[in-house]
Known about the structure:
By secondary structure, the chain is α/β, with parallel strands linked by helices. The chain has 2 domains: 106 residues, Resolvase, N-terminal catalytic domain (Rossmann fold, 3-Layer(aba) Sandwich), CATH 3.40.50; 51 residues, no CATH class. Helix content is 53%, strand content 11%. The chain has a 4-stranded parallel beta sheet with strand order 2-1-3-4, sandwiched between helices. Helix 1 links the parallel strand 1 and strand 2. Helix 6 packs antiparallel against helix 7. The model has no long low-confidence stretch (mean pLDDT 83).
Amino acid sequence: MIGHRGQVVGYVRVSATDQNEARQFEALGTVDKMFFEKVSGKNTEDRAQLQEMLTYVHEGDKVRVKSSDRLARSTTDLLALVEQLKAKGVALEFVDNPALNTDTPQGEFMLTVLAAIAQLERKSIRERQAEGIAIAKRNGTYEKATKLGLEQITEARERVEAGVPKALVARDLGVSRQTLYAALNSSGLYAALVGV
């Protein structure tokens, strides 16, 4: 397709309930083709416009999104999409975080670091969950167990203080923002946990 080469392809996603897409459209500016959907970002396979965009793009194209969380809800999903686009010779541009753009050496480096961190984080979370469940069972409190352990709360607090958005921290830990806020504020079930 001669006329297709080197297109800038926009992708906008908002959740079905609470977000306004206008800011994303404005942030992306002029693009050759736009894909838009109102759907949860939980499963990339269930997002028809994302799948259509992945089929549409060709070598030399650039996919532009406002931020990484519009494309994927987890680092793992993000990295899988990056690899998929890279295999097609398609660059990825994040308006809000140019340090992750795949057509720069810095972006390649950042994504490599993210991949390593995601792998380590998954392993650490599995270990902490297993330890937490064992302790909760031993204490007879497994039914009422909190979703986050002390180590996870400490890690979450450090990441938030380092400037990582709370929504991203919550996603990476596999909990809702409300659960993360309760843990960070030591409220609800977390009041007793932090008091230990």
